[in-house]
Amino acid sequence: MRFSTSIASVLFAAVPMAMARTVMIGDSMFAGGSKVNNWLQEWAGHEIENIAIVGASLHEGWTESIPAEYAELDKTVVPTTIIMDGGGNDVISKRSDCESMDDACKLQIDEAVSIGSDLLEQMHEDGVAHVIWMGFFYIGGLEKAADYGTEKVAEACATAKIDCHVADLRDLQIPRGWDGVHPTDEGYKMLAERIWEVKLENHVPI
After folding, report:
1. What residue range is the signal peptide (predicted)?
2. C-alpha dihedral sign at 181, 184, 187, 192
3. Residues spanned by the domain of 66
4. pLDDT by residue (tens digit) across 7-42?
């Protein structure tokens, strides 16, 4: 399901402004005033917190990990909804293994998703009600890793105690910029649209 901004306006205009606290965590797909964040805020009609960090992964890495982002989040008011991504940098750090989709790549993805599962459990214990976990889109040479990773994320969401939904991107042709990884402005909007579709289909407050 795809929609234009005008259709999106109709969809959320009929719904009262959410009073829920929504927080985005993850990596550069969301970080740094991400256009994904901007589109979601426009459609939601209110500010959405964003603490994603460029270079973050689910494993510990050269910068703060995604679990560490969440751990440092002020939970005096517990978020109702977390929008997250995670796993992309874990795959990129093993790119040659993941291009051949060898056992080292599968282990890397399995470990990353296991860390993500533990994070979902912590969110549930903290009182977070909903999670939308954005999956992977296809990048040349990493299509099999995207399939394997998204399926593992789907399994993690399906078995989690928390209400968790995957924003599956694999059917989208995401236009990408100079580095061949990060989307163009149009591509970021497509990511936001898919997250919004998941929100609408599953009645997730944002």
Report:
1. 1-20
2. positive
3. 5-9+21-201
4. 444 444 434 444 689 999 999 999 976 799 999 999
